[in-house]
Request: fold
Amino acid sequence: MTFKSGFVALIGRPNAGKSTLLNTLMKQKIAIVSDKPQTTRNVIRGIRTDENSQIVFLDTPGIHKPQHELGRQMNKGSFTSLHDVDLIYYLVDASAKFGPGDQFVIELLKSTQTPVFLILNKIDLLKKQTMIECLSQWSERYAFKEIIPVSALTADNASRLIEVTKSYLSDSEQYYPNDQVSDYPEAFMMAEVIREKVLQLTHQEIPHSIAVLIENTEQRENSIDISAVILVERDSQKGIIIGKNGSMKNEINKRASMELRNLLQVKVHLELFVKVEADWRNRPRQLIDLGYKQDPRDE
Reply:
């Protein structure tokens, strides 16, 4: 039996459901999710291996009009992925109207020779006739190799998407061990879990203005001590993150500790600090330290 492998980029506008689809296709949580736009800030790899294939999914930040250097770096990661993979999933929210942002992505796709699947997500929200009209309209916008309706939330059509994807992959070697499901560092995963809890518990301007930095970890026999800093841009945001008598920070700590304990399979002692760093999203050095920008000296 031949073995197929390849790299697949998930691209699209913010809130199209890319991270939810990645987790569904992987059948486990790889990427953090929230209902806030631009939750994904880095390209995150999910490695799906079975007896005859290995698909490496690249979940990319939502393509958007950047307002700061962080946004530009997020777009850069998505743009680069278009040319470094074997297949592209262009994910769209089938329940949303077509707009200038969608047209911008289509124009980007015209610059690549990589096969593109249109993944119409959130079909669970559509009536049958609306779905038929949606399929017809999208088929006229670009020469997609395949158009596959799915529901990332309910896993509807996920199995078919995997099988069709395999048919486009080449006979090739296995890139990662059978038991490896991602390749990001442990500290990155810890920071993402904490950031997800902040996103889930806060509103308005807070989600876009925060970042998490793991300052120190200390492994003990049956536990791990984690010290992390939540960065915000203003004193008012710091007050919201801390909450009255520390209530918000305590809830973030509680939820993050619980998930980290399940992931790491050890007791977790998490200490959170909140620090104001004005305009951190426009500071190259800060973005490098947070893993959002490559150090030019490493290029």
Q: What stands out?
A: The two ends are 40 Å apart (CA to CA).
